[in-house]
Amino acid sequence: MKTTILIFLTIFTLASTQSEAQSTAINDVKSTLESYIHAGDINDIKKLKPHLHGEFRVVLYDGKKDATSILDKSTYVSFIKTKKFGGYKRSINYEDLQLIGEHMASVKVTLTSPGKPTLKNFYSLVKTKGKWLVIQDFVVLIP
Description:
By secondary structure, this protein is α+β, with helices and mostly antiparallel strands. The protein has 3 helices and 6 strands, in the order ααββαββββ. It has a single domain, classed as Nuclear Transport Factor 2, Chain: A (Roll). About 35% of the residues lie in helices and about 40% in strands. A 6-stranded mixed β-sheet has the order 2-1-6-5-4-3.
């Protein structure tokens, strides 16, 4: 009986520790993503750049035109700087967030703002040197 209780307590402790670590990682991913989105909303490239991986890219699909555009990091940053992109506050609705091991995450959100197109975004993040970075922003314009 003591062995059964000890096994149960050990499993419970491990599960609690893992859940706590996963909860922390989810909060860290959301914090990074919200900072990234906010920096674009206010066209602040100094706040934006720390959240971008060196190989960052945007894949943009426009359903009306049935066209896909791929932007590298420098092009995207220049579009934020020149206000071709961003410049208005968006609300974030999290639809899915999955941790893939300890160093990758996939996040699906809908971004909305009154009078602006609705965006369905699929983000890929990687954890490098203890910091979560956005490596890809796959954007679908919802007509």
